[in-house]
Amino acid sequence: MTIRVMLVDDQALLRTGFRMVLTAQEDMEVVAEAGDGAEALAQLRSTAVDVVLMDVRMPNVDGVEATRRICAGGEGGPSAPKVLILTTFDLDEYAFSALKAGASGFMLKDVPPGDLLAAIRAVHSGDAVVAPSTTRRLIDRFSTVLPSATSEPLARGLERLTDRETEVLTLVAQGLSNGEIAAQLVLSEATVKTHVGRILAKLGLRDRVQAVVLAYETRLVQAGGGAA
Predict the structure, then answer these.
(1) How many CA atoms lie within 13 A of 210 on its CB side?
(2) Which of 74, 102, 142, 208 is a good FRET partner for 130, with 20 to 30 A between their CA atoms?
(3) DSSP code per residue over 70-129
């Protein structure tokens, strides 16, 4: 299966570099490019895309707003593409907003080509791609944008979880992978994956990125990485 990719960045040189990397892959094809969010949204109305590589700071419609419209189902038809944010560490506040808007993950623009390709494939398959260490830095640095008090509706949602599921969610929010969680809780990785799937289903979340955001918004985990 060929993964159809759209490149959205206001720097043509960066788009050229990414296109060269992607088109060299047998399972990827760059089907569209755009210089800002407005152009990307317009192209999605007539072009089938699986994964959008989205910059955040762009003129007209920025990447956060474009991501919000795509993930809300307003653009891209019934099978809206997945969005992978490309940013720099100095702009992580934008990446956090994009994750809340529905992006499936984010990566730094200086990511090694192999990691970028792996991320595109992971997002296309339905996984989220936010490196655990980056998740911790992101939440720690921008905890001030999170609610100052627990959101009651969100907190009530956590009551649906079993004690074990709450434990797993806490570790997910601390940036641990399934394998690391399995080792810490002395479980099989398959069991942890099952727990994560049940957590997402019970809370109505799309992926573990949304689970991380929820855990911090409800103060299940405090900024700094520890359980509340």
Answers:
(1) 19
(2) 74
(3) HHTTSSS-SSPPEEEEEE-GGGHHHHHHHHHHT-SEEEETT--HHHHHHHHHHHHTT--B
